[in-house]
Amino acid sequence: ASYIYLKEAIVEGKGQHETVIPNELPLIQEVTTTLREWSIIWRQLYVPVKRFLVRHMIYDLIEWRSQILSGTLPQDELKELKKKVTAKIDYGNRILDLDLVVRDEDGNILDPEQTSTISLFRAHEIASKQVEERLLEEKSQKQNIDINRQAKFAATPSFALFVNLKNVVCKIGEDAEVLMSLYDPLESKFISENYLVRWSSSGLPKDIDRLHNLRAVFTDLGSKDLKREKISFVCQIVRVGRMELRDNNTRKLTSGLRRPFGVAVMDVTDIINGKVDDEDKQHFIPFQPVAGENDFLQTVINKVIAAKEVNHKGQGLWVTLKLLPGDIHQIRKEFPHLVDRSTAVARKMGFPEIIMPGDVRNDIYVTLVQGDFDKGSKTTAKNVEVTVSVYDEDGKRLESVIFPGAGDEAISEYKSVIYYQVKQPRWFETVKVAIPIEDVNRSHLRFTFRHRSSQDSKDKSEKIFALAFVKLMRYDGTTLRDGEHDLIVYKAEAKKLEDASMYLSLPSTKIELEEKGHPATGKSMQNLGSCTISKDSFQISTLVCSTKLTQNVDLLGLLKWRSNTNLLQQNLKQLMKVDGGEVVKFLQDTLDALFNIMMENSESETFDTLVFDALVFIIGLIADRKFQHFNPVLETYIKKHFSATLAYTKLTKVLKTYVDNAEKCGITDQLFKGPTQRHVQIIMEKLLRTVNRTVISMGRDSELIVSDFLMETFIMFKNLIGKNVYPFDWVIMNMMQNKVFLRAINQYADMLNKKFLDQANFELQLWNNYFHLAVAFLTQESLQLENFSSAKRAKILNKYGDMRRQIGFEIRDMWYNLGQHKIKFIPEMVGPILEMTLIPETELRKATIPIFFDMMQCEFHSTRSFQMFENEIITKLDHEVEGGRGDEQYKVLLEHCRKHKYLAKSGETFVKLVVRLMERLLDYRTIMHDENKENRMSCTVNVLNFYKEIEREEMYIRYLYKLCDLHKECDNYTEAAYTLLLHAKLLKWSEEACAAHLTQRDGYQAATQGQLKDQLYQEIIHYFDKGKMWEEAIALGKELAEQYENEMFDYEQLSELLRKQAQFYENIVKVIRPKPDYFAVGYYGQGFPTFIRNKVFIYRGKEYERREDFEARLLTQFPNAEKMKTTSPPGDDIKNSSGQYIQCFTVKPKLDLPPKFHKPVSEQIVSFYRVNEVQRFEYSRPVRKGEKNPDNEFANMWIERTIYVTAYKLPGILRWFEVKSVEISPLENAIETMQLTNDKINNMIQQHLNDPNLPINPLSMLLNGIVDPAVMGGFTNYEKAFFTEKYMHEHPEDHDKIEKLKDLIAWQIPFLAEGIRIHGEKVTEALRPFHERMEACFKQLKEKVEKQYGVRTPASLDDRRGSRPRSMVRSFTMPSSSRPLSVASVSSISSDSTPSRPGSDG
């Protein structure tokens, strides 16, 4: 049962203006409208997460609404509940992208009429902030992650990966080094230092105290590392012992050699991203041994990463892993149970994203990359070992400065892995070199090379055979550059190589060698002093991570400013050019330097402005998003390190100067960024109102001032409308702004009418600006009510009305006020007015569409035509509809034209044209975002054909290129070529200048039509080549060659073109081209778009595409369509049904050889024309018509051979064209069948004449099947059906066809005679009786035929046994060439002017 519940209400106003306001709490009304709005959205939501969220929110609101309505809650609870309700509504609105609601303290919606603008703005800011906070809160609860952990991760810019090595299960048999690090598999590079564990041959750590405490933390990971697509945890195992594990006689063998053993790799991306977090889970990382000496460790790593799985045989590492937030200090504080002082710290190679003050670091990472070493006097390649050490310029070694990995002691020299007998070893081994800052400028890295022998006795005698070195400090005081260094390998006696003074003065890298004027290549050896440059090569790469060393000269100059004060001004200016990353790295030192410069020059003001600029530059850097993490560093610096009191006064002085000179813009741009800008903006707005008022009152006398003022105001308003000052969901603020604008624009309109309309004071530009502003206001996003929900639409209409109508009527009145000035606005104003009329608001349209008619009249009175208007509206309409505007309801104009005595005829024609264009453009727009490119192509062709028809060449070309681009996207190169050809055909081979619209594409650089046509032809030939359409390419090539040879005299281009042509001819003969199938497709039913509805098309299939695949492709485009089972045309019931029915079957293209092939040619040449340049396609199906005749089944057995003729030849500018069909009569079918039979006999005779060894069986079957009395030549029934008085009387028009059929029957006899003669020669004795019976039957048949239809005698068959008799050829070509298929007449175009392409001139 239903019942009516009466609600208390207040009624305001009367009649039309009556409004009913329920006597409920405003909040209850709000909840009600919110629920209605949300429920509509809820139905549309398919995203499950949001869907369930909305459901919960709706249920909550319903529950709370009933609680409030019950009236049983105490005041304080009611207050709390109201807060919950408003919070939930605001939160839900934000999630669903609805408008922001602004409220007072009690949660009631603010009335913009009763609230000042500033308060309203503040309320918006507060509401927006509260919703943001709530969203963040919800998010962290929703993700159900320990909020604490998430907050920590969100608050810290750095992370660390904690690794606990539980066990190494691996049969090594000797001591080993286990080196673990993080690796980026996509960049193939290590991103962290190594964590090194030394493992003993007994299967336990060397340092037995650390047995259950093998822990490391990989620090300094930042947000960029979290964003890496993949990160791997890589472990390399290096064996330390003898050269070959197989050798047993350990006493005689060299020991302590580092040899490659294998690797283990694990993808840790999910752990780094926080998707997997289980610190107790032990992960097994499978081990992959090295396969051979050329299997370098890095190569094995990449192989394992690429492989799906590793055949590890149970060998590998066991580890636990966990991602921790924070830098090393935070981690030690917050995770003491995991990370303590004994935990190894492996840093990232490179800086963390944030460098805290006090984080002093001075690391240089050195990677041994690769080398190439000549075997010298040895028979095989050397076993090269590289030793790395650090020396100062006096040749003294720096002790304990090399770190092979975290968790290990510092060493004085590092020895590389040895690859046995490898000429080009690739190491990729990295060590960290940490040198006291004061020693860096005196130090260099020394690399010595030694051959290691597996026999201890030999090994002892091996000396260093070469050396390379590189200095850590460059000549300009900056540090060695990051990246690869190709070092020179020097040879000399071992003693000399150990003496630093011998080599330090020499160049260390190939680049340096070239800089010093020595060629880096050339002779194998060059003598430099007592050292020789070897032809061996050696590359290293370095990376400097130092908070004290810079690689930037300008920054260094500033940091060391005391050493050269003359350059100080220059250095301060140069600071602005230094890369931000480098400055923030040395933030503390840079700030110290700047304040020291100020302090130590306290007497003068020389540097104050420069220092101020530099500080603004640095603070600006940190405001940049990229360096926002450095904010805490700056704050820490200000709190703890900044102590320059005097600096305040100096800086304040500079600031004052800048503010005083604010008009001379410069650094003020920097100052007024961010919050400052808001303050300046408020001041400007307050000033602006005063200025506006003053100018308007002042300007009563001075027209010029008012005109300028209005001009600027119009421009300013238009900018503000276009910029969306407030966020899109601040709907009240946006409407408030619009209300103010509307009032102002209307006031300014009065001023225009009063002051600037009469002949003397008319200001064209001012009026123009007014119209543009008014249209921009009307078409802005925030006023398009039809895009909003009904609730929002009702709210806006209720409060503000439809402002578009108000301004639209104003625009109309202003237009009609223009009087004789109107003509000055045609055609410029057509676009803006069109934009306005395309708004789907009926009243607005009724008011503004007549402006068009007025424009037409106006131009017609002035010039007796409305050509300018017509051109403009067609161009603009295309643009607007494509941009998403416009609909079906565009016919109002027609009524106006019909009533007008002059414009009736031409106006109506024009309006019909606009309506047709509109239909095509709307079709085109609907389909433009369709996945199905073929539909897009069809619509594009419809539009371009329309533009062709109305002779709008510019628009036609525009759509040609859209079509061409679609084809290229689908690799339809042939179709792309035909499309471009339509553009080329519009051009002449002449020196005429190109119209701008002809060179529509960026790629063409042509001044004349001839040049453009040349470029287009080259492109088209290229596409025809790609589409294997060499015949077409040749035809165009000939035309182009003619130009090159006789008009342009460009023999170079000609020779290139002819070479291409030759290649095309060769391709035709030699390349096998796939033959595409052709398919007829009918789209029946009203469910299809208009451009294909109830039409049949012939499609050219893709290479090797079978019908099943083609059908599947069709049906995916129309998933709701039903495939028809029959191939006969459907009835009206299906055509008029609301569904979609697709009919598809294969058709056979009919060969149409070009006339030039007048004599037999190679099949390779003809085969092209069997499937190309075809316009006629046939499909045969047997059909019985009328009652079945028991005596003669042929009389009503029809083969309905349908010939489809397409509108244009295929292939063309599309892969399909529309068709019309033809039905063929039984008599024609009989002629076809006789023709085919005769063809068949003749072909078989030819084969037997050419090849006497062919088996006789097929010939026996064929002949017997024809001469058998039961069949009697297969024409007895034709005689009964067609050769009767009755038939002749009923079908006098068939006389010629009947004669032809008789002729074919008569011709069958000589063919059969020849066949039987060959059969007699070849027949075996066993089959002799069969042959004799066949001969008797033939004799009977021959007598009958010759008596009735006459004798046909071919030229003597005996004389011409190897080739086809001439008369036989005649007998076949004659009937087929005049075969009576009058199909062209039914085509969509008349038979005498069949165009070859759409849009072409035939």
From TrEMBL:
GO (cellular component) term, any one: plasma membrane
Composition-biased stretches (Low complexity): 1375-1402
Tree of life domain: Eukaryota
Keyword Transcription: no
Gene Ontology molecular function: guanyl-nucleotide exchange factor activity; small GTPase binding
Segments for region (Disordered): 1352-1402
Domain DOCKER: 947-1354
Keywords assigned by UniProt, alphabetized: Cytoplasm, Guanine-nucleotide releasing factor, Membrane, Phosphoprotein
GO BP: any one term: cell migration
Name of a matching Pfam family: DHR-2_Lobe_A
Subcellular location, record wording: Cytoplasm; Membrane
Residue intervals of the C2 DOCK-type domain: 361-545
The name this protein goes by in its record: Dedicator of cytokinesis 1
Organism the protein comes from: Apteryx owenii
